[in-house]
Design goal:
Glutathione S-transferase Yfyf (Class Pi), Chain A, domain 2, about 240 residues, six-stranded mixed sheet, transferase, about 10% strand, alpha+beta, Glutaredoxin, 6 strands
């Protein structure tokens, strides 16, 4: 029996949710180790000391330990697991052109939606805890929200139309089979819901694609987003 991969995660992290679904769907043996990044705790200890020293020098999730090989950064972990473990090829195809398409999108996502959505959520949370609101903070949040909406529009109008180049309708982003790009993007698209922003409003292609991903990944999609949706419901009620 292979040694289970130790998987450190917090399901409020979009990359953690994507990896949880990947582990479950591919049946890679793994040991789940939840880390509360909000409470800065790992196995009841302070993240800043124990977690940094023994697990991840950057104090971040997700993180894996594969028989002594430690690796961080969600996209890198997914690519590593897809290459090194016995998983169906469709997740990260060996075909160089298909793999290049996935890598192309993931580069764009990391430089655009991933950084922006995280920053927007962080700013929104921090602003909500301030006793005194001011016009400068409100303007900053409006600017962030506009950037988030614009990025979602790019997903809707550009990336969801990759099939035009291939002269056929694709079920998923890169073809008719789900890839790591789909599960990463699905979790990314959900993230603005944490602050009451509906990412699917007025975006029918994005909505249809996300339903395809959810349907394919159930029950793991629902499990990964169970606690996340509780928080998003509260955020939606406040807006």
């Amino acid at each position: 029996m292979p040694t289970p991969v130790k998987f450190y995660y917090d399901l409020l992290s979009q990359h953690s949710r994507a990896l949880y679904m990947f582990f479950e769907a591919t049946k890679i043996p793994y040991e789940p180790i939840p880390v509360s990044t909000q409470q800065k705790e790992y196995e009841g200890k302070q993240v800043k000391s124990e977690y940094k020293e023994y697990v991840n020098r950057f104090q971040q999730v997700p993180m894996i330990n594969d028989a002594g090989f430690k690796l961080s950064e969600g996209v890198t972990i997914l690519k590593y697991l897809a290459r090194e473990k016995l998983v169906p090829e469709h997740w990260y195809p060996r075909d160089s052109k298909l793999r290049a398409r996935i890598d192309e999108f993931l580069e764009w996502q990391n430089n655009n939606s991933h950084t922006l959505f995280n920053k927007f959520v962080q700013e929104k949370f921090e602003n909500s805890t301030k006793i005194h609101q001011n016009a400068e903070n409100d303007l900053k949040l409006k600017e962030y929200k506009k950037l988030v909406e614009n990025t979602l529009d790019v997903l809707e109008n550009e990336w969801m139309q990759l099939s035009k180049d291939e002269e056929k309708a694709h079920k998923f982003m890169i073809g008719d089979k789900i890839t790591i790009a789909d599960i990463l993007t699905a979790c990314e698209v959900e993230q603005p819901k944490l602050v009451g922003v509906d990412p699917l409003d007025g975006r029918p292609k994005l909505t249809h694609w996300l339903e395809q991903v959810k349907s394919t990944m159930r029950p793991y999609y629902d499990e990964a987003h169970h606690d996340f949706y509780k928080i998003t419901e509260q955020a939606s009620a406040k807006n």
